Every structure is written in structure tokens, then in C-alpha cells.
Amino acid sequence: MTDTGRRLDRRGFVGLTAGGLLLPGLVRAQGIAPATEISAHERSLYDAAKKANESATWYVSHYTSETAEQIGRAFEATYPGIKANVVRTTAQVAYQRLTQDMRARVRNCDVFSSTDIGQYTTLKTDGQLEKYQPQNLRFLFETFQKASDPDHFYWVTSAGTVLINYNTRHVSAADAPKKWTDLLDPKWRNRIAVGHPSFSGYVGNWVVAMRLAYGWDFFKALEKNKPQIGRSINDTVTMLNSGERWVGAGPGATTQNSASKGNPLAIVYPEDGTLLMIATTGIMKSTRNPNAARLFVEFLMGKRTNEIHAANFTDTTRPDVPPYPGAKDLATVKLLRPTDAEIEKGIPEIRELWRDTFGV
Amino acid sequence: MLRRLSVIEPATLLWLLLVGALVVLVAWPVAELLVASFTAPRTGAWTLSNYAAAYGRARYVEALFNSLYLGAASAAICAVLAVPMAWACSRTDMPGRGFAWFTVLAAFIIPPYLGAVGWILLAGPNSGWINQAWVWLTGAEESLVNVYTFWGMAIVIALHSYPFIFIFTKSALDLVNSEMEDAANILGAGTWTTTLKITLPLVWPTILAGIILVFLETIALFGTPAIIGIPARINVVTTQLWQFFEHPVRAEVAAAYSMPLLLITAGLIGLQKLMLNRKGYVSQTGKGGERRMIKLGPWRWVLLAWCGFVCLLSVAAPMVALVQASFSRAWGRGFSLDNLTIKNYRYLLFEHDGAALAVVNTFVFSAAAATLAIFIALAIAYVVKRKLLPMGGALAFLCMAPFVIPGIVMAIGFYAAYAGPPLTLYGTAAMMILAFTARFLPIAYANGSAGVQMIHPEMEEAVRILGGGRLTAVKSVVIPLLKKALLGGWLLVFILATRELSAAIFLVGPETRTISVLLYDLSEEGNLEVLSALGGILLVITLVFVGTGMKLIGRDFMLRRGGE
User: Are the beta carbons of A238 and B528 separated by less than 8 Å?
Assistant: First the structure.
């Protein structure tokens, strides 16, 4: 094993398998040959984790259950002998559980992933996170490297987008809104679907970004078009599919996933900016599985995880893995991304404003 | 003192044991919540600030009132839907009684999420099929119905809750014999007068119990208010509570916000007592009795039409959504042959990682919880009604308490009580079973309590005069008499446990996922096609279970068959 590790391409993988050099666990992974790249650093973490009989318990909320499970199993296949316990729930539940655990001094969780940046700043301030500099961070898009904590307590491991989605049966590509302010056109009266910032982190981030760009007047004007307010950002996809609403401020990934099945949906990357939503990951302080936890974090930034991202309609974090079908390369898109401080300060404010303007 | 101890029956020890179980199941988690509601989040000091935060703002208080209105509206609609059906199924010769039963069960099993989506498809103000048909037929500009309103929400909730009242009322009517109806007939009362003045008043305690349950369930419901209430711009307690769990998490405020709901429960139990006071509802005496079907003549078709109408609203509508989406490649494309597929079912049954385990988990947890809950509830109801232990009222309250605290908040109590030491049940099946048992104990209790109320103690006294102990009396008199009511209660708890989401979502571990959690995940992902297929699988399996159970229990023992 060299410093840079050994790259296994598909042919090499098959050859090695035939040669019986590979551990059987790898064969279980997905049926296709994974791009497994194990660096010296990962190797040493792996050996240490194996020696100490460690496993990694991962509290995660932002993936679909299947994506989270696939990542867990791919990890186990890449590192036989290290078990990954995937505990996937919704964001509120995951964090609530984590705080209950901390109060009861139960150390269930080793690695914690969530889209709510505020949770990380709180955990960091309370000294509940382990400091670590992942070596794979340098392979991510620059935006994501910059969005990770400069003090090395949490890092970006996944991303998503909020953009304009629409029903292609009712709206042609030419007529579809091209930028966010197009949604204020009276022709979209009773036609718009949005989520709710008190129920969805995606929506919360989007509202903060819109307010920064256009002021709260944007939402006062939007209310004149009587948008339908759902709960989750994904509710816009359901509303567009049913034909009840025609255009929305929705998620890129879920919309394209639904469209890939044949649903009459399409997306527009708005000219005035696509909201970039990041999900971060941290290691819990005094974890009983320090090596496995670190190895898992490295894995979350690895190629294999990003291939699983793309296959499951989640945005990729590395330029060397192509995005999911229908998505643009994030490096070519104008992105909106409020700073952590803007988000943390802004979300409680916009929730109140939202309630004042929309009444719910 | 010693002499008194020596006359304690072995049964008394059993009662005490059950009270102990009740404390572990209910009192402990509720106490954890109560403590949390008075605790400052970071310092752990005693404080009232959580209550100030929860009730210091008009918009939070307004949500509470919305919930109360919604509960009352849904409960009233449920009673209107269910009581005529229950009466028709239990007492009359209406044709298609099996069909009515099936309707009720199906309405209960279908995940409310699908019901709500079905109603959005039907009654959405822009694209709802009813509205499209209306516009096409009349040329009107305005749509006819809008599901995104207070009453739209109340009706959709009622359409998935009326089975509570149906099952309660029917099992009570099954126990009422015809003697008093005969007396009324002899005195010149017709069928309708007899029904309204004799039969229904006799089962009034049970109907009332059902109404209270629907009211409480509606207050604690999250799914439908989230899907319909938020677009309708109506905030209720549960949607408000959920917001307390967004960052910055204020779980203590959430606990404080929920505590007054306990007072409402206590108030309702008090009210129920008051309304039932000093009236006799005993219809099961030791003097035998029989039951005849009421011949309705042409009216039976009217009743059948009513059942058909309820079926149309509560089952057909969601089934349209379920069947269409579950067999679609892409449900947004609507009905067309090239859109047909069985891929969603195949994916769930053979390819999905967790689906098979979730199905098994769901049925094992639900069956275990239903059995436990019925056993404990019957015993407590018996103890309370026969006044075998002091403080019966407190016991009754404990049995009803878990229902009204919204699941997500109750789940915090469960997690605090069971997950860590000393029980350390985190991630185990036992934790899920205990939580389901505690959560649905109120249903089992309301059911058992209404049943015991109808049995005159004289039959148990007969056993005791002949030398039998309390337990013999229960075993040979109470349980056989209540067999059907208990089965009804068991089914209720079982079905509710298969749907339970709000506590489950908080308590699941990697190995204990249930169907409802899987459904929620799929709905979060906007994956309606697979979600519907899972709903279909759930429906088929539950119906098979329930059908088998009903076959095993046998026919109505008091019913005199024609020609016998």
C-alpha cells in the first residue's frame, strides 16, 4: 500500500476477486464494483478500529432511509469487521435523542449528521464535539471545504438545493419562471407551492436567503399570489404532481427523482441563484469508538459515498463524481449560501415574520 | 392489622401488581415530563419560565383553542357517521352488514396520510376531481368544495376516526338484550321510539366513551393537521408543538405546553362521571335474555345507503389514491395503461432492505401490545368499577393520561424512563411494546370499563356465594360475557398500534423499525408510489389477521337465528 492508496477500477476489482485476494465482504456491496480508495491514513484508522473491536453508530436525518442504509452497508463492505449502526430519523428526533443521551450520559451516538447548522454551533459551544481534521475534506468542492467549521469540529458531508420546480403539463419550459422574482407575477396567483420554515430546514435556509437578497417585502408580495404552504419542502413535489399547484420553491433532488419515474415535473436553476443547503457531520466528544468514527467521517467524504449520493438523487460533494441525472454540475451554477451566522440568527426571525405574513 | 392482612385474597395481590405495572407504564414517563416542564433547560433549576414561554403568547394559546374546536367537530361528525351504522349492524336485518364491517375496518387501517392525499385529489380547490366535474357540469367559475378548510380537516379526520365509535357502540349493542325493547313495544312504542328512547340511551356510556376518545385522539393527531391544516393556514397544538422541536429545541417548553392537556383529560373523565351518575346502565344481568333482529322493512335500504355513503367517503376516496399511485410508475401522470406497473410492490417485497422486517416488527409489537393492554385495562377497569381498591379515580385517570399527551412529547417521557438505566431498553422490541401498550391503554381501558359497567355484579356474587374467589368470578363470568367486547378492544389497539407513528418515530432503533415509520419516511421523501404500495400491503395483511380473528371468535351468542 502506497501513500496515495490503491485505486481499484472495475476491471482490477474483478481480477482481484477472481484471484481471491479480496475480503468476501466487498463482494456484497451493491453488485457493482465500488470505487474504493483506501489511503494510508484510512488504513491505520481501520487497523486501530479493528484492534479495539470498534463499531460506528451514526445518527443521521437528512438522507432517505435507503440511502443512509446503503452508505452504512458500503462502509461495512469496505471495512469488513467494523459495523456501522445507522440510526436514521427526522432531524428534530435525531437531535432530541442526542440531547437525551447526553443528559443520561449514555454514549450511543458516535457520528452525528444533520442539516441544521444551529445544532452544531450549540454542540460545539457546549464542548460536545471531537476535534478532527479529515484528510478527505480536500477532495470536496471548494464551497464545501469553506463551509466546514474552520476550527475542525464539523464538516460538510452532503448537500442539496432549493430551486424552482414546475408541473410540465400545465407550464411549458418557456413559460416557467426563470428567477425567484418571477414568482411574484400575478399570473401565478393560486398556482405556487412552498414549504414551511418552521418544519423544514431547507425552507428555512431558502427564506433567509430570499430575505437577504430582496428583503421581507419579497414574501409580502408572494402572499398576494396566495401560495399554498406545505410542511416539508418535498410537499411541493406532491402538490405539483397532483396538479393542485403548478410551480414551487422545491428541492432539486426529490423533484428530479420523481421526474425520473415519469412524473410531469421539471426544474429551473434560478438566474438569481440556487439555494445551496449543506448537511454537516461531527464526531461526538468522548466517543467510545474514536477510530471507527473518524474512519466513517472519511468514508462520508469518499468517492463511494458520493456514488451512492448520485445513484439516490442526492447532490454530490466531490467534483470527481458526476451528479445525479438531470442535475447541473454545482460548479457551473450561481449558488446562494447564507453564512452560518446569518442562518442561525435569521431562522428564528423569519419564523416569526412568516407567521405574521402568512398566518400559519 | 394482621387479621386484616390474613383476609386478603390472593386476587388482591394481583390487583396491586397491576397497579404497579400501571405506574411503570404510565406514571413514570408522565412524571418525567412533569419534572421536565418545571426544569430550566441548561441549569436544571426549578422554574416556571417554560409555562410562561408556552402560554405567554396569543398565537400559542390560539393553537390550543383550534385543537379543542377541531376535536369537538371531529367527534360530533364521527358520532353522526358511526352510531346509525353500529345500530344497523348490531340490531337490524339490514343487508350487507359484512360490507359495513369491512368498510369500518378498512377506514381504520388505511394510513391517514393516504386518506388525506386521496381527499386532496378529490377536493383540492384547483384540480380536485369533484371540483373539475362541478365546473364541467355547471360551467361555474368557483370550485364547489375545498379540503383546505377547518371543516375539510375535521371531516377528513373524522373519516379515519369514526371506527372508534362504531366498534364501541356495536360491541355494547351486542350485549343489550331485547327485554326492555319488548317492554317498550308492549307499551305501544314503535321501532324508532324504542331505539331512540330505550336502546341508544342504554349504550350511551359507551357512545360517550367513544366520543371522548375521538376528541382526545384528534387533539393528539399530527399527520392530518400537518397535511391539510398548514395549507389551510390553521395551527393546532401538535403542529405548534413540532415547532418547539426545531432548533433551538425547547423540549421543556413542549412539555409545559402539553401539561394542560392532562387537565382537559381529567375534566372529561369528571364530566363523563357526572353525566353517567345515578343512572342504571346495567343490561347484563343473571336473568338470561335474548336478542332479536329488528325488522326494518324498506328502511333497511336507507340505512344501507348511509353505510354505502360512509364507505364512499372513508374508503373509496383514499383507495382511489392508494390503488392509482401504488400501481403507477409515476402517479402524476394519472390513469393510463403504459403507466401501470407492479414494480412498487416487487421492490418492497423483494428488494427493499427494511420492509420485510418492518412488517414482521409491526405485527409482533402490535399483537403483544394489544394483549398486554387489554389484560391490564380489564383488570384496572374491574378494580375501579367494583371499588376493590381505594383511589379508583386516580387509577382511571392514569389509564387515560397517555392518550392525550401528543405522541412526540409522550415519547420523550418514554425515552427518559425506559431507554437508559435501570431498564436500558433502547433499541429493543420490549421498548416499543411497552410504549405501544402505554399509549393505547386508554382505548383498552375505555373499552373494558364500558363493558364492566354493563355487567350486574349479581352474577359474580353468585359465584362467590358458591365459594368461588374473585378470580374465578372474573374468569367464569366477566371474561366470557365480555368476550366480544374484549376482542373488539383488542382489534382496536392492534390496528392503532400498526398505525402508531408519533412515539414510534422517536423510539425506533435500527432493528425495530415499523411500517408506520417506513411510511412516514416515504412521505418525507415524496415517494407516493412506493408509499401507497406499502399501504396496500399493510391493508391486505391486517385484513387477513382481523378476518381470521373474527372467524375464531365465532358467532354472536345472544342472537336468536331465524327459525330456531
Answer: yes
